[in-house]
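Q: I'm writing a short explainer about Thioredoxin reductase for a general audience and would like to include a description of its predicted shape. Could you first generate the structure from this sequence?
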Amino acid sequence: MTEHIHDVIIIGSGPAGYTAAIYLGRAGYRPLVIAGAVTPGGQLVNTTEVENFPGFPDGVLGPDLMDNMQHQAEKFGAEIVWDDVVSVDFSQPVKRLTVDGGDTYQARSVVVTTGANYRKLGVPGEAEFSGKGVSYCATCDGFFFREKPIVVIGGGDSAFQDATFLTRFGSSVTLIHRRSEFRASKIMVDHAKATGKINFVLDSVVERVNGSDKDGAESVDIKNTATGETTTLPANGIFVAIGYKPTTGFLNGALPLDDHGYIKVEGASTRTAVPGVFAAGDCVDSVYRQAVSAAGMGCHAALDAQAYLSE
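A: Of course. Here's the predicted structure. Afterward I'll give you a sentence or two in plain language.
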């Protein structure tokens, strides 16, 4: 166990974590960022071109954006540890965090920015064509599929929101859902149907994503769960919208979570129920889930942590 007690430790990286580190570093707190070993940098590391992050009129590659944020945090004194937090003890004023490598770190305050992962289909071709047709963010990637056939997989509000948004790009938009009834709210369903631009394939599941190395995704194999019949549907853009899973399992009850596993915070702040522990980004936000909103929350968390430390 390290004997040194840090003023603040940030668990996680990505836009929220690195933004918090930049602010805390500039304030002189020399934050320790436990950035992760498996997926440091968050979801943007697996994203190709990002065109909706302010300040980049020509777009920026996701990994490049995260590298720049990391280097900016380090410039202001942040220290990066490439490991994953596996357990925490927030029961005392000095918090303790244990990482996968076995080391334990101590801090007076903690900012949790561990994000969330997209739920995936787990079918052949999904991983192979991720970033080459398969996407988990309609607002990020819809533009790349102008006048191309698009499918959206899911039956909740997110799927209907994505399908409606994508009608402005695709030559066709087909929503595929495993059941005959939707989980989405009635107003979302009615709005999507009112566009007249969305086809619905119900009682069906995607079994495979097909394509080529040269052209990317080209079609999906669909199985009707009622009849067992399998068909192939042309699709260059496959948007998976079956939910998110916040990365909060390592907390093991140390912080209150909502019914879906997101960390609860007080109002519009980033304060959790534990004094000195703050949370920001997609491990809190189940609504917007954008890089720029996560960065904004990271700023809030840094300012909340500064206020706590100064007290």
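A: For your explainer, you could say: The mean pLDDT is 93.
Q: Perfect, that's easy to follow.
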